[in-house]
Amino acid sequence: MNPYLSRLLAVAQQPSRRIIGLMSGTSLDGLDVALCRCTGHGATLQVTMEQFVTVPYEAGFQARLRAVSQPRVDLEEVVLLNAEVARRHAATVLACLAEWGVGPADVDVLASHGQTIWHAPRHQHGRADFPHHATLQIGDGDHLAVGTGIITLSDFRQKHVAAGYEGAPLAPFADELLFRQPGVNRLLLNLGGIANFTLLPADGGPALATDTGPGNTLLDAVVRRHYPGQAYDEGGRLAAQGQPHAGLLAALRSHSFFREPFPKTTGPELFSPAYLADNQRATGTESLSVPDVLATLVELGAGAVAQGVRHYLGPTPAADALVSGGGAHNATLLAALARHLPATTLRSTAEAGVPPDAKEAVLFAVLANEALVGSGLSLGKISLPG
After folding, report:
1. Counting CB atoms within 10 angstroms of each CB, which of 126, 171, 200, 258 has the fewest?
2. Is the peptide bond preceding residue 263 cis, with omega within 30 degrees of 0?
3. Total structural domains in the chain?
4. Residue 175 within a domain
5. Per-position b or e across 25-61, b if 16+ CB within 10 A of its CB
6. For residue 260, is it within any domain?
C-alpha cells in the first residue's frame, strides 16, 4: 500500500487532526492560511485555530489572475497558472510553517479551495444545450501535495456542482458545526468580493445559504482605477464622503440577477467593471465623483444582502449576524447594512472565536476534517505527495 495512503487512513482514525485551510477569494488580494486543530467530527467537533496569516499577492500576479477571469482568455496561461498558483501556494505554506516553527510532517492534511477564475451557474450562462451548473478553480492539488509533502484535499466545489447544486456557498456545511445556536436566528454574513450568507434558523431547521450580489469586488475595482497604489477603500472612508446616486442605483438594481429566485450564486464575471461602466453610460453618470460611485455601490451591496435576509426571515428580520470577510472592516458598508436591517444585530465573527479574515480558511479545514473522518460529507479530491 502507498505509505501516504496508509498515513491518510491513520489520520482519519486519530482523535484529532492538524489541518491547514487555504482560501483565496474573488477579491484576489492574497492567500489566507489557517493552521487548525480539529478534534472529533460532526456534533462533537472542536476547532482551535493555532495560527493564521494572509499573505498578499504582488500586483503583477493579481493582474494575471484577473486576466484569466475574463470571458476570453489565453488558454495556455490558464494551464500554466493552474500549476503556478499551486506552486506559489505550496511555497507560501512552507514559508508559514517555517515562521511558525512547525514541520510539514507535523501537519496531517492541507485543504485548498483554489482560485476561482469563472463561476457559471445555469441562470448565468443560459445555455439551453447544457442545462447544468459549472465552475472552475485553478491551483492543482497534486502540485500542492508534491510541493509541500502534505496530503492535500482540493476541488471542493466539483462534487457539489456534479450533484446538481451551484457549488457555492459551501460554508453552510461548516457553519452548521461551528456556529449553530438553538433558539436564535443566526446569520453568517460573508462580505467578500461577492457577498453571501448562511442562515441557521432558530427552530433548528436546515441551514440555508445564498449569494446576494457584489460585496467588495466593485468597490475595490473603482478604488484601484482612480487611486493607483491603493487596493481598497480602507474603513469605507471614501464612500462615507459620498452620496448614493438614485438613478445609477436603480439601473444597477435592474439587473436580472436580483430577480432570480433564492438561493442563487454569482461572481465577478457578472458584477464586473463593465457592468458598472455600462450602467454609468446608460444613466449619464460617467462624471460622478468617486465617493458618490462608492456610496452607490455600498448601497447596492447592502440592499442586496437585506433583500436576501428578508426573503428568508420576513420584512423585519431579527437575527444575530456574525460578519466576516474584508467588508467586516468597512464601517460605511456595515452602517448601510444596519439601516437596512434595523432588527438584526451585526457582530464580528471574532466574538464567536473566529477572526473575520480567517473564517473561510478555517471552514475549509473543517470541510477537510469532515470529509476524512467519515461523516458522510463527500467533497474534495485527495492528492498524495508520492
Report:
1. 126
2. yes
3. 2
4. no
5. bbbbbbbbbbbbbbeebeeebebebebbbbbebeeeb
6. yes
Query: What percentage of residues in the chain have a pLDDT greater than 90?
Result: 74
DSSP conformational letter for 58: P
**Mean pLDDT rounded to a whole number for the chain:** 92
Percent of the chain exceeding pLDDT 70 equals 97
Please give the pLDDT value at position 322.
98
225 and 157 inside one domain: no
Burial annotation 180-219 (CB, 10 A radius, 16+ → b, else e) = beeeebbbbbbbbbbbbbbbbbbeeeebbbbbbbbbbbbb
- At a CB cut-off of 8 Å and minimum separation 6, what does 144 contact? 86, 89, 90, 93, 110, 112, 150, 152, 154, 383
Give 137-161 pLDDT, tens digit per residue: 999 999 999 999 999 999 888 877 8
Q: Residue 296 belongs to what domain range? A: 181-352
Question: How many residues in the chain?
Answer: 386
CATH number at residue 272: 3.30.420.40
The C-alpha cell at 119 is 463561476
158 and 203 co-located in one domain: no
Same domain, 364 and 311: no
**Is 250 within the bounds of a domain?**
yes
